[in-house]
Write a structure and sequence with these properties.
Elements: H1 2-56, E1 65-72, H2 74-84, H3 90-95, H4 97-116, E2 123-130, H5 142-152, H6 156-165, H7 170-188, H8 192-203, H9 205-213, H10 217-233, H11 241-260, H12 269-288, H13 291-305
Antiparallel strand pairs: 1-2
Helix pairs in contact: 1-6, 1-8, 1-9, 5-7, 7-8, 8-10, 9-10, 10-11, 10-13, 11-12, 12-13
Length: 308
């Protein structure tokens, strides 16, 4: 009887130990999974931010319309309203001079009151203006870029710690942070060519980070394709069309090997093939050495890649 109780006791201990190990393993896997998902979201944030900054240096926007705000003065508004009813109101004005006189006195009194208090009436008109590479004549908004780059310094320390937690190369993490400092210097000096180059080098770390935080092969391939494309894009102002051509060739080869073949039988085949054609057509702009045509095709390629 005693032997039976002893065996039962040992059996219970073994069961408890096994359950504890399994529970600990599941909790560890869950924490690891949550950490990976969090870091992936951070890498995606960095990727989108860098792309936005790259595009803003050439005033490239994904939308084709901008909201324009213009101020309408009280005088303009009054002239418009008077002009529309000038003919129909001539006869009525003769019969209502006394009423208009009283109304004008009230308006003058109100106007004097507003003027004395330092207030001015302002009306704003909102219109949508069509925009594009060929129609854009605006300068780079350096003040906005400086603010955006400075704001990156807030989340980077947290992202750095999370990257370290996934055993990502210490050299790559430090390299990314150092390049961010280089970007800050270039933007502070309002040097477009150096800013583009620094952003392109900064983006080179995104595929390295993505490889560690996601198993999504399509996402990783798109990131790598963009990386090669940005190398060419960043050299447009230098006018080194030979290097740009080589970068585009590498972009096409990378895209073909990683996406065209792998997506041959997927529901993304149409979009995949369409982008492949667009990348090859980008070489025509390189052959022509036409920056505007390059930017138009570049913009359309990036927008189409959002569908993968």
């Amino acid at each position: 009887m005693k032997k039976y109780k002893k065996n039962l006791f040992l059996f219970l201990i073994i069961v408890i130990v096994i359950l504890s190990v399994l529970l600990y393993t599941n909790i560890s896997k869950g924490n690891s999974s949550n950490q990976t998902e969090k870091t992936l979201a951070e890498v995606e944030f960095l990727e989108k931010k860098i792309v936005t900054l790259l595009n803003e240096l050439n005033n490239i926007e994904s939308r084709n319309y901008n909201l324009s705000v213009s101020e309408i003065t009280k005088e303009d508004s009054s002239q418009n309203s008077q002009g529309s009813g000038e003919e129909s109101s001539q006869s009525d004005n003769q019969g209502s001079q006394e009423e208009n006189s009283e109304s004008n006195q009230e308006q003058e009194s109100s106007s004097d009151s507003n003027t004395s208090s330092g207030e001015e009436e302002k009306n704003e008109e909102y219109t949508l203006k069509e925009t594009g590479v060929l129609t854009d004549n605006s300068d780079i908004d350096w003040e906005h870029l400086k603010t955006e780059v400075e704001n990156l310094y807030s989340p980077v320390p947290t992202i750095t710690l999370d990257l370290y937690g996934l055993d990502i190369s210490r050299e790559d993490i430090l390299g990314f942070n150092q390049e961010l400092d280089n970007l800050t210097t270039a933007v502070k000096e309002e040097n477009k060519e150096n800013s583009l180059g620094s952003l392109s080098r900064l983006y080179e770390y995104i595929p390295k980070f993505a490889e560690k935080v996601t198993e999504n092969k399509t996402y990783r391939a798109v990131i790598q394709t963009k990386n090669n494309l940005f190398k060419a894009y960043s050299k447009l102002d230098s006018g080194n069309w030979e290097e740009i051509s080589n970068d585009i060739k590498i972009t096409i080869d990378t895209y073909s090997s990683q996406l065209v073949n792998s997506n041959a039988n997927s529901d993304k085949q149409y979009v995949t093939n369409k982008i492949y054609i667009m990348l090859n057509e980008l070489q025509n702009a390189v052959s022509m050495q036409d920056k505007s045509i390059f930017l138009i095709k570049y913009k359309n390629i990036l927008e189409e890649m959002n569908n993968l």
